Amino acid sequence: xSNNKPMPVATEISAPFWEGLKAERLLxxxxxxxxxxxxxxxxxxxxxxTHALTWREVSGGATLYSFTVTRIATLPDFADEMPxxxxxxxxxxxxxxxxxxxxxxxxxxxxGMRLQPVFAEVDGKGNRLLRFTGxxxxxxxxxxxxxxxxxxxxxxxxxxxxxxxxxxxxALVSDQFSPWSNQVVVDQALIDTFAQLSGDDYxxxxxxxxxxxxxxxxxxxxxxxxxxxxxSRMKLNLGYEITGFSNMINYGSDxxxxxxxxxxxxxIHARARVKKVERVKSGTQLTLELNTHVxxxxxxxxxxxxxxxxx
Length: 311
Ligand SMILES: [Zn+2]
Fold this sequence. Notes:
Elements: H1 15-22, E1 26-31, E2 37-38, E3 53-58, E4 62-70, E5 84-91, E6 96-101, E7 114-121, E8 128-134, H2 139-142, E9 159-162, H3 166-170, E10 184-186, H4 188-198, H5 203-206, H6 208-214, H7 224-229, E11 240-243, E12 248-257, E13 266-280, E14 283-294, E15 302-310
Parallel strand pairs: 9-11
Antiparallel strand pairs: 1-2, 1-3, 4-5, 4-7, 5-6, 7-8, 10-13, 12-15, 13-14, 14-15
């Protein structure tokens, strides 16, 4: 799974709910005055407005109230969970919870079906989210973190090279690229966000229907500039670390090309090599050739000869 998924932030009022999930217990509030059950966590009872709310453990027995199947990730970080079954579940106490269904095939999901809670591990730090599954499923098996293996850069020993070590710096120059970085999904939602941000909302990026008919690529494609800046999301292990400088500046690019399109929905990754190291008046310039490819594609989508100035 991706490590960048946004996590709920517990507040003073909601903390007992999240702490309960960590302990694999479902705690919701009940009003001492009128017995009304309350969810989401609140400071007062929405039925009688008293503040006499008490946290009580409930079984998690529930019924499916509504659901939808999402096939496009809302954030690239959720691409490994597609399709997602987003649901509104009604606990036996009558409160409704927005959640996900897990361990169920789409064909098994029916409004009104009985559900049990899954205290789903999400980050290896003990945080859990409340999800639900069918009564005939193994909720314990489903709660364990599902790690999607990603071919990440193989461990490469990091050499430290001092900025004044001329021979050491020149030895970094190579025709060999680093191992591949982690992977990033470029979906339509991300392209739309970038279109909004940049003002470049040309139909070839933002109108899937028109692009299907008229685009030479058979669908929408990402902006070259978007794919270029996504290089920041890709962690590279270049095998070296330069030490002994006081400042490092992104000096721009010697060369920037977009040789191949990135269709919406593509997974991309990057690799790099040191192309050149030169002494200049203001310091030492290192030219890093950073190439982004669609997974499995020989031809790069972005060639960026990034100039980094060390002073
Ligand atoms: Zn009340």
